[in-house]
Amino acid sequence: MGAGNTIGERFVAMSFGESHGRCIGMVVDGCPAGLPLSEQDIQGQLDLRKPGQSQVTTQRKEEDKVEILSGVFNGFTTGAPVCMIIWNKDADSRSYEAIKNTPRPGHADYPALVKYGGFADYRGSGRFSGRLTATLVMAGALAQKLLKHTLGIDTVAYTLEIGGIRAGSITRENIASRYSNDVRCPDPAAAEKMKEAILQAKREGDSLGGIVECVSTGLPVGLGEPIFSSLESDLSKALFSIPAVKAVEFGSGFEGSKKRGSENNDTYYLDSTGKVVTRTNNAGGILGGLSNGMPIVMRVAFKPAASIAKKQETLDISTGREADLVVPGRHDPCVVPRAPPIVECVMSMVLADHAIRSGLIPPVLKKGA
Amino acid sequence: MGAGNTIGERFVAMSFGESHGRCIGMVVDGCPAGLPLSEQDIQGQLDLRKPGQSQVTTQRKEEDKVEILSGVFNGFTTGAPVCMIIWNKDADSRSYEAIKNTPRPGHADYPALVKYGGFADYRGSGRFSGRLTATLVMAGALAQKLLKHTLGIDTVAYTLEIGGIRAGSITRENIASRYSNDVRCPDPAAAEKMKEAILQAKREGDSLGGIVECVSTGLPVGLGEPIFSSLESDLSKALFSIPAVKAVEFGSGFEGSKKRGSENNDTYYLDSTGKVVTRTNNAGGILGGLSNGMPIVMRVAFKPAASIAKKQETLDISTGREADLVVPGRHDPCVVPRAPPIVECVMSMVLADHAIRSGLIPPVLKKGA
Amino acid sequence: MGAGNTIGERFVAMSFGESHGRCIGMVVDGCPAGLPLSEQDIQGQLDLRKPGQSQVTTQRKEEDKVEILSGVFNGFTTGAPVCMIIWNKDADSRSYEAIKNTPRPGHADYPALVKYGGFADYRGSGRFSGRLTATLVMAGALAQKLLKHTLGIDTVAYTLEIGGIRAGSITRENIASRYSNDVRCPDPAAAEKMKEAILQAKREGDSLGGIVECVSTGLPVGLGEPIFSSLESDLSKALFSIPAVKAVEFGSGFEGSKKRGSENNDTYYLDSTGKVVTRTNNAGGILGGLSNGMPIVMRVAFKPAASIAKKQETLDISTGREADLVVPGRHDPCVVPRAPPIVECVMSMVLADHAIRSGLIPPVLKKGA
Amino acid sequence: MGAGNTIGERFVAMSFGESHGRCIGMVVDGCPAGLPLSEQDIQGQLDLRKPGQSQVTTQRKEEDKVEILSGVFNGFTTGAPVCMIIWNKDADSRSYEAIKNTPRPGHADYPALVKYGGFADYRGSGRFSGRLTATLVMAGALAQKLLKHTLGIDTVAYTLEIGGIRAGSITRENIASRYSNDVRCPDPAAAEKMKEAILQAKREGDSLGGIVECVSTGLPVGLGEPIFSSLESDLSKALFSIPAVKAVEFGSGFEGSKKRGSENNDTYYLDSTGKVVTRTNNAGGILGGLSNGMPIVMRVAFKPAASIAKKQETLDISTGREADLVVPGRHDPCVVPRAPPIVECVMSMVLADHAIRSGLIPPVLKKGA
Lengths: 369, 369, 369, 369
Hints:
Chain A is α+β, with helices and mostly antiparallel strands. Chain A has one domain (about 5-355): Chorismate synthase AroC (Chorismate synthase, AroC fold), CATH 3.60.150.10. Chain A has helices at about 40-50, 95-100, 110-115, 135-150, 170-175, 190-205, 230-240, 255, 260-265, 340-355; strands at about 5, 10-15, 25-30, 65-70, 70-75, 75, 80-85, 155-160, 165, 210-215, 245-250, 270, 275-280, 285, 290, 295-300, 310-315, 320-325. Chain A has a 5-stranded antiparallel beta sheet with strand order 1-2-3-7-4, with helices on one face. Chains in contact: A-B, A-C, A-D, B-C, B-D, C-D. The interface between A and B is large, with 104 and 104 residues.
């Protein structure tokens, strides 16, 4: 509906704001009443996303302090829309003036110029800026708290690969300390190499891409609505709303397509608690679009950041002539280190929506629950 | 909305029916008035999808003859909902009775049983059957005709890989003859090997997966609605509604995430007709969620079919005991050869929706146009 | 979404078919699994709606036999879409050929001709025929059974006024026998006069309008979602989808707007069972868009039927010249006697949707409940 | 979708904020790019709505100064969501503390308390306050400008009746000066009596209701999407989102239901410009749910305001005992004088949505147009 700025059916989020406008914000309609909520609940994930925290991210300083404008009363959600906002500060838009006719290769500049007839706010990439992912985090952090509070669902994401360097062993323990290094990779040895690779690319005026993996645990069996609202459908739709994402796979994904059925099928058995589980999890926790009670496992590929310092060829749209482009300003040499909290939040947003649709989270939470 | 059986905003399709029920069908609401349409326009794609056409697909015979029940008058669409239906024939449901308490590994049986409290129609896998992809083809073939008729958009899909065997050279010419072999792979040499691999797996009571690639050409610049209705978001949502799909990537996808920005960015230039194009197409025709005028290139991974003849371990849900399972009935040893028409149709359904949303296709087509 | 043929959020109904096409039908997506359902449950309300039952309705014979094509298995709903269909029989479309260029005053002919560019199926008024209300009855009768089965909610509608003749005393008892006379008015004396007035208008080649009143009882407190999905909002939206409806009011309605607040406010007290009730019900059971536990009381005005036998002036659209029109065919001299089952069903459709949205009806009904 | 705070399909508005919270606001997604827009365009209608302008409205002073936070760049809309906000000032919530357990008769207090489990923000009636109509005005004033700018559509609303006193002659001229008296009635003589009646009711601690009439001119033929998105359906849905509205009628409405078809049908002819028009307008500009090119005429009934100074009986919900209630604070003795700008805006919001759906307003407006 509208022009694409809304997602969800029961837990509905509408994003607004521009990178260099007055603010960015999100309104969530459909959050149940009775959830304890304060700005700190949202700020935590925003702080993990914000730039300027290490050498591997852009050196721009964005405080990104969230304010809740509505929907919370006496420390609890009320059932009314929750509007969250971050005021933009000190944006320097001059560099965008210089390049507004020379679209950056790999960026939305050119199709956006055509689509919006020149009316779009191009400063800081406007609505196409990675900065807008902060609005995804606002709604998603709220969803994450709701899922944890009501159903005990946890969602964790981490860097699996950067510039072709892949993490080795991933364990429950090292996932827990994934934020202890600059690239947010659970494997500290790989993390060190990834960091070095990013710094090298940065020195060369270039950028790297990578892969984020995400795991959700504690899900009930049967979330998801086939055919068109399968969990994979709705999760992938939301994940592709993150700029720079070009691929999504669940469970064994592309690799699984090379296996045989007898290898890829996950065999059922009862675990020691009497719960139906599978010996492997090639399905990534989803069968027929429905959660099967195993952890949801998903991987998402980010292309290398489009805005690089190196000189590139492009066109001057106003003259039709070829032009050299050196993108000014400060940009992330790799967006992957900042992506895990975004991916966690986006996943949570969709799972919360489905949990409400399935009747697992009621419209009003019990007091004291 | 509802229970997930509807997709689209302006070109809206609602699927109904069960694998072994009376019929399967699709209602499309929002198809513009004035499109010449007959059952033959739909039947062509259905015939390419239907089983029993070669050794590599299931030997079940399904005639799959579509009837248009509404929305067409004097040979043109009227603007009213187009209901299309296929009457089911001679389904043999006995085998499903035998396995209704022993969920097939890799299939939706178990989560569906839990989700629907035992009320779901399990015969022939009910709503979770691959047979329901015929409803996607109904809506999608209509969309494909609409796109071709109004905007000249073509969408072609073909088998890129089966059982790890990948097509070599793909050209405009061999794509055109993709349906000349049983596996629908443009590369005839690879096609031969793929076929052999499927027959080998079949002999062993096993199954294979694979990858389908899809290319849409003739798109205008600027289709797609960021943030949440980006082309990638809406295309992936629809593609994951096809059973057995576990991964979707656009352009350079996962491979692109290993490259540097300077390699992966697509440089702009003017082609000989004065059109803005890019030298490479790592973006797969989509930047910032918007079409950039280059062909959309997408790949989708199908897991090996879950229903295999080989004996498998599972649980008897009614007793909680471990049980051996030999899936009865005739099943596809590999669904990939039947997938290309489905993928074409699903892609078209989403592109038609966006073309209407963008105002590129009007509610009433001009007579004689 | 689409072109307006769908209603509801959780209990979603999509209408298809044309008056003189092959069939008319409705697909309901979102009906919970586990509701006992057979065609008889739907046929009852359809029989009360169908024409040819008395002198005061059109003498066309329409059998209107419903078939359930999907979504029911072993006598229970499965959670999958329920497709219901009526095959059209023996429609005589010749008369519409004669008048297709001379739009009937008061009917949709002229705007429909302009809107659909001449592509619409005009036979029997196509999608604008009162015949399509049978699709509302299909979805609504299902909703009515669901509400009764799960929450004990009853909805009854009856004729309050025809041709300015208003029912006198309305009681619980005479409402129960509302179908014992041809005009479906609880007050038998008024019913007699109404019938006479219709027959008189019919003899003069003219038509009458009237008012239907509807009461829903057994509702919980708090149904409805302010601001835009208030009960009044969603009920009126659905009611205005019935052809010939031109006004809707709740509780004291227009009359209430002439009162003072001290008269119109409904005072709270506890009834003998300890339930919070009000002494009067000027609010018609809805405050702030939410049900307050009192019966919902609503009235809906039907204009006199547009298709009359009397000669009328109009334009010949093909020539722009004035023309005389005598509408051929057999038409209802008054649609009100056939309206009560339609109104009951439309009300039920909306209440079922809200009951599911509020979590009062779960996605799967308990077995044996 | 969500919890009912969103309306529209293409021109989508989401309302947020509470009467005594930090702010109230509206986000509009789907406004085409290229519309000249400043805060003054919105403020004009807000100023006509705001209280404290005369003796007949509440003496609360609310400055209601709107700020546009997003979606406008260089004086034009960009195609991105337009977020508009009013910061609340100096609300005095103490009086609501006193009555939070004694629900006001005729107000949403009681069902809201039950529905939201005590979590709702009850201060100033929270989301149920008439203050929230300012958010309708925000979106609607934007819609009104869009309709005027692109299609030349005008919508005017005025007071037709207050306390049973009805305006006499309504003419094009006196409609134009409808804001020249305190009650916004075009007929100055009736206006004087209405004002006196309100002041009398106020002196007695009581309140009055009334009727607002609304006329839209300049509409093309064929707006509206039958069956469920008929113009009457969508307009009434939106109108019933205004607090205190209990009835809506189009054209001859309830009165028309007493007429004969031959009287109520509107005869077609060609006017002097060659346009197809009707001699009467009993249809209120809508046939079969579609605009027919004649002015849309609609009337909406407001009940007398629920919050009155007079002592009323009610229940103490916390004890179950009967209680006397004297509503503290300053309230409107009649909301009708403030309603016309709200009604105009709500009508415009729906018409803009349909104009975009019908393709009459494109996603990007031409520069200089």
